[in-house]
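the two lines:
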Amino acid sequence: MATSLDNVREPVVATPEARKAFEETALKTLEKFGAVRSEKNSWELMVEVCRCNLRATVQAIRDELGLDMLLDIVGIDYLGFKDYAGPRFAVEYVFKSVYEPAKRLMVKVLVEEADAKIPTISDLYGIANWQEREVYDQYGVIFEGHPDLRRILNHVEFVGHPLRKDYPAHRRQWLSTNDYLYPALEKRLESKGYRILERPEEINPSDEEYLQGSVKK
Amino acid sequence: MKVLTPEGEEKNLMVLNIGPSHGATHGCLRYITALDGENIAASVGEIGYLHRGFEKTAERGTWQQVLPLTDRLDYCSAMMNNFAYCRAVEKMLGIEIPERAKVIRVIVNELSRIADHFICDAAAAQDLGSTTGFFYLFDSREQTMRIWEKLTGARLTNSYGRIGGLYRDTYEGFEEDVLAVCKTVEKNLRDVHACFDRNRIFLDRTVNVGSMTPEKAISYGWTGPGLRATGVASDVRKDEPYWDYETYDWNVVTGTRGDVFDRLMVRLAEAEESLKIIRQALKRLAPGPVSVEDPRVRVPSHERVYQDMEALAGRFKSVFEGIRVPAGEYYCGTETANGELGFTLVSDGSGHPWRVKVRPPCFTQFAAFHELVEGGLIADSIACLSSINIIAGELDR
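prediction for all of em together
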């Protein structure tokens, strides 16, 4: 039998004291990146950082604080939010530690609408690749340096970003085609050391067109 | 597609498309593979065929109106999603649900977990060509469904949870029915273990197929049985106990290799652990309220509404304006059958959620699908797909 019932470790239950201790360490560690505790989340620790320090912060979160799992990347649109003045979008990152459950942390980055760009962290966490694609798909926030930024839940022909507050929920769009996966497949092959020598003639879109989601002409 | 392999050999790779409507994709998803003979050289997945705008729809209603939508996430264990959502909102409201509600939630949760794990293993057995295994595992599930019908009025989309408690109390004879299911589950487990454990064909198809290392699994954000199969004992029920899970006597099951076999067997072993929890919980089932009394959270009952002015006004306000959740942004993860189902909720203090973000556990697992299948045979990719239990309703939202 391959499965075993014995615990690899004694379960470490997240106690309020351990949480508090972690919050203090985290705030001290992330201080140098200008991270401040956000008052928005009164239940758990959430820090706000400038997007210029995001990569350094996430690096420290992973290596110094030991939060090895990125649970989610959440986009938020504050258009029309009650008593809110500030950048329109926010991107929130939810981290946790697999082995030390008292460690949980959210990082919030505010993004202006006119300059909706944010550095990618897809090289630090494997799952960030798809999660960033989802935020891009739903909100149109560009993740700079992302290896393959294209829509994920909506298909290529989709126009607009549906979770923006100014996208009407009743708008219908007719999507007739699958995503064009050849470039991604070729990229994947190339990353494994293959070199593409020949590809079918009719399917060779440029990267630019592909990212715009307008392969079909 | 003509390529030069890393070994410097010129080869013709065949590109094969699988899905979106393929019997083994369990819903709708698609992946294309570059095949070198029968071996997969590279694979890329595409999701979104079942995207129906859960998050956009959730923003339009009140906090309570999100609840029936959560049924449609992981539709094999709908009530677990209900409870996960309710728990997130309850945490924001800062309310504690009554003792009886907790115990019923635990029983229903664990019974759903067994049903969900059984569906996954049954479908995997079917995909691997074992119809016997499929029927053994679907046996107790049908019995569970009959309990759901009596308890909630529906088989699949139950909407049994409510913010602050439950829709209604259990029916007479609930305990006996649950105990009877437990017996059937035990019998099914014995049968299916006898069918699989030393079955040469099954072992050849699953052992050391689609292996995952713990480091990669963590980097890809795997949770639940998929992560535990790699040997990482991580379970939200143990790590951050809720609904008194810490007071029950049960174990976290882990695998060793993280292959298809481990993932399927961890699920079966977890079903056994769930049985333990259910049996203990049934003994704790004492009479009491199943919802909080607070009229700001829980809609007053009809009897009170027809006799009491305050209750009438409370019901009206609650239904039309929604529960007022304190302003803020909060993430809350709950252990469902597939892993950690998280809800990131943003509230502006009104009765309508500003943003509901779901963290579906199988999204992370499908994101790592290429890691599982590359280097393996094309037929094994089907085994990998069924072992990570992709539920498209949850994957695409």
